[in-house]
Design a protein that fits this description.
300 residues, mainly alpha, Four Helix Bundle (Hemerythrin (Met), subunit A), 10 helices, 2 strands
């Protein structure tokens, strides 16, 4: 089952291999910087920390892998469009994340650092790369909406994941506005961007990483020969469950309250979302346990 699942998650086309190879390079970056953090020490929080190369390397690796996964599931082969999107996202994300890594090694804040001219230029280039990445992701969403995957479960996973990424882009724009407002008001780079007592990067991160869960559930359903209706049910549970978590993250941020604040509505929403995600993973895993085992033949 593990081999069949990994086969479902691997690249199939040239465009997918481009972004997935770039993703692998950023996984290596994350591992290297974990080692640097262990050796060098220092705090995990703050605007200048080894946390940033580690977290951003992992995050961009997951996003690029998801892009490759989506490109492999587009029903109409458009190699030129797929190639432009793959190379565009690979190059722009590499420049943006490399600048974050560079600033950390320089001992400078990477985000909202516009006081020094050099740092401001770096942040400006990062912003331009993010803008181009956002354009590529929006084009990918539009392509998926026009030429939707014919399989219902795949369609839910692809469109649900890309819609959440688009939500993350909107939250990211809000995050930038809050960060720049803080710099203009106080003249210093914020340790963390908040709205009230809410940390705005929380919904931003949640929105970008639902598609990986949907892809995993779909791959498990395919690898375990889950029937089409059951596979669709599993993916829908994942989308609705994770969507509930995203609604919770966005709602608490807009309200300006910490994510760990317990309220009746949030308790019900988070519990229901968690149950739906568990069901989404349990359906293919239960099917794997029911699959008949073929006994190994013994030589005469």
């Amino acid at each position: 089952m593990v081999r069949r699942t990994l086969r479902q998650l691997g690249p199939r086309t040239r465009a997918a291999r481009v972004v997935m190879a770039t993703a692998l390079a950023w996984v290596v970056s994350a591992v290297v910087h974990v080692g640097v953090f262990v050796v060098d020490g220092g705090g995990w929080d703050g605007p200048v920390s080894w946390r940033k190369p580690i977290v951003f390397s992992v995050s961009i690796a997951l996003l690029l892998w998801a892009v490759g996964w989506v490109l492999d599931r587009m029903p109409v082969a458009r190699p030129r469009l797929a190639g432009v999107l793959a190379w565009g996202l690979a190059v722009t994300s590499t420049i943006e994340t490399s600048l974050i890594v560079l600033q950390t090694w320089r001992g400078r804040a990477s985000h909202f650092n516009v006081v020094d001219p050099t740092d401001a230029a770096v942040f400006g280039i990062m912003g331009a790369m993010i803008g181009l990445m956002a354009l590529g992701l929006v084009v990918l969403l539009a392509w998926a909406l026009v030429e939707r995957p014919p399989d219902a479960a795949t369609r839910w996973a692809v469109l649900g994941g890309l819609a959440m990424i688009a939500t993350g882009l909107g939250v990211g724009q809000w995050l930038v506005e809050l960060g720049m407002t803080y710099v203009e008001r106080f003249g210093v780079v914020p340790d963390v961007v908040t709205h009230g007592d809410a940390v705005v990067k929380f919904p931003h991160a949640v929105a970008f990483h639902g598609i990986q869960l949907f892809a995993l559930v779909l791959a498990l359903g395919t690898a375990t020969d889950l029937t089409a209706p059951r596979r669709l049910q599993a993916v829908r549970c994942a989308v609705f469950g994770y969507g509930g978590l995203l609604v919770f993250a966005v709602a608490t941020s807009i309200a300006g309250v910490p994510a760990d604040t317990v309220a009746p509505w949030s308790l019900v929403l988070v519990t229901g979302s968690a149950v739906a995600i568990v069901v989404a993973l349990a359906l293919p895993l239960a099917a794997a346990r029911r699959r008949p085992r073929v006994p190994a033949s013994l030589p005469a």
